[in-house]
């Protein structure tokens, strides 16, 4: 279980006196995020459907030559809808229904780009190392039932949909990939972005199922902004964020599945650092809840065989290029985070801090090229023996 | 002024009930840092000399083939000792005296490697854009008076000393550099590491005084551990941290000078992200207090000419490779942070998370090499006109 703490942010709100709270928020979160006023119909629908709905906004300075480029993104975090031993097709259908009712509220809230969590149509069953039935959740990125479902949503709501699924690639030997499908607001499949870095940590036995992605760092120019998708463990790799940014991404989504014991203290750091380092918005999303498996598995830690991976702690948030961030969604409930942003902030912060200009990438291209050679000799300075 | 908040950490301690506090600390800081028990003589000397003294420890698992590699680092943050219009040599002498009395306490506290703040012998006068008298603070890294002073400290206490100064390089046309001199516990100058990335942000007009460093990413193998120095603004550049780590650094110091309005919400993020991403310890140090200049200067922000850069907020801390960190020193007082660490933790965390193994550096070396070409075409996917 995620324990009793709903979120760090709500705990600070409850206990710290207002005058100190403002300072704490300034230092910890870059200030008080502006609250969005969301339509009553959206708020009541969220309550009825039992999910949290929060809205925040990031502003930019007015410019002379560019209008504000306002976009609303929606981040959805959710539990699986049915037990993991339910028939595959029934589980998928239940998740489609759940997401459809949350996306409807996103539309009411004015969301332009929505992103679901990693492998959102399935339990995160890679801990089991079993192939069946879990690989049956894999679908074609181009025309699988989930992509078709998302295309309908996109057209219905004029919304860009990012749908991270387990992909079956029939044109390349039926291989599996961990893939985000990006669907334009017109309903067209714009393209896909495969997970670039695959974990071998704890129970995240994903390397048993699929390989490092081969789609590079594509950036998608949508009606609402230039976006990219850095899937889950790619969050830990600063170079992965950097290359999405080099290709022009202003918003980088990070659909994830990660558990409390492993990564909860790293979660507030990494995506936010990426927003700062790359002068862009980042949107980390984590699922919530516990997922139980019929067959026990071990964790390579000397512990007993068990039936779950631990709790997914939610806490989805948005980080801005200026070092600020929104509060996170809760650690245990389904939720929709609606964040309005003026994309002009990216270039404004870039012109202020100049990390791209001062980045000395030529030097690093050379140094990395050297460092990966088998004959690489690290630059280590030792004390001379004479001393 | 730094305001009324001594530090975020002390504010949380005061207001949040114990059972919730433990959870908050786990999520925000990776848990409760182990407190070091420091000698009474050190604690009383610190009190007498009016500086904060805090001690924490990070542990690692026992291994069969390696003994624990325990090292104690000391981070010193301080105000300037005299007004900025005092004679240069008098200011330097006063700072030498102040540091000597803090280092003596570091020695009593068992510190093996001590690091001072950026350009520690001078006010951070680059905001003024005046050349005299500020460039007179520059010294030879190899045999300047400050290096000699540090060599004496090193020998006296068997301590590695990292001394970040404004360097005058007489053998290359008398150029200036922002340089950390690394002095072995034997008293020998092991080498130097120049600031790789130079800011052009706010009042940090350092590019008026010196250029991007040309010493690369040297790592120093000392008696107590393999260390590197990433100076100040290099903190914002993930590739800078990465190359120090690629060369084998287990502890990366980050002597800095940065002010509240500019960077305080980024401070807890960047060095900590670097510790996580590179499986090493990072040690960011920031000076404290206000520094007033006789001649007013403007800030390029439409505001009135004024006499200070704003307040330096201290808050020096140590981040560990496992995502945890110590509390910070205070936001306004001189201080010494003593942190004991078992360097075996670096490889243990690396073997757990495998960021180096999964980093795909060959791919990034190629991609960066492409990205820096004038003819680089970003990988942007647009909707086809037919839709």
TrEMBL record, chains A, B:
SUPFAM superfamilies: Carbon-nitrogen hydrolase (SSF56317). Its EC number is 3.5.1.6. The keyword Phosphoprotein applies. GO terms for cellular component: cytosol. Pathway: Amino-acid biosynthesis; beta-alanine biosynthesis. It is found in: Cytoplasm. GO terms for molecular function: beta-ureidopropionase activity; protein homodimerization activity. Pfam families: CN_hydrolase (PF00795). Keywords: Cytoplasm, Hydrolase, Phosphoprotein. The keyword Phosphoprotein applies. It comes from the Eukaryota. One of its GO terms (biological process) is beta-alanine biosynthetic process via 3-ureidopropionate. Residues 71-343 form the CN hydrolase domain. Belongs to the carbon-nitrogen hydrolase superfamily. BUP family. Catalyzes a late step in pyrimidine degradation. Converts N-carbamoyl-beta-alanine (3-ureidopropanoate) into beta-alanine, ammonia and carbon dioxide. Likewise, converts N-carbamoyl-beta-aminoisobutyrate (3-ureidoisobutyrate) into beta-aminoisobutyrate, ammonia and carbon dioxide. Homodimer, homotetramer, homooctamer; can also form higher homooligomers. This is Beta-ureidopropionase. It comes from Strigops habroptila (Kakapo). The lineage of its organism: Eukaryota, Metazoa, Chordata, Craniata, Vertebrata. The gene is UPB1.
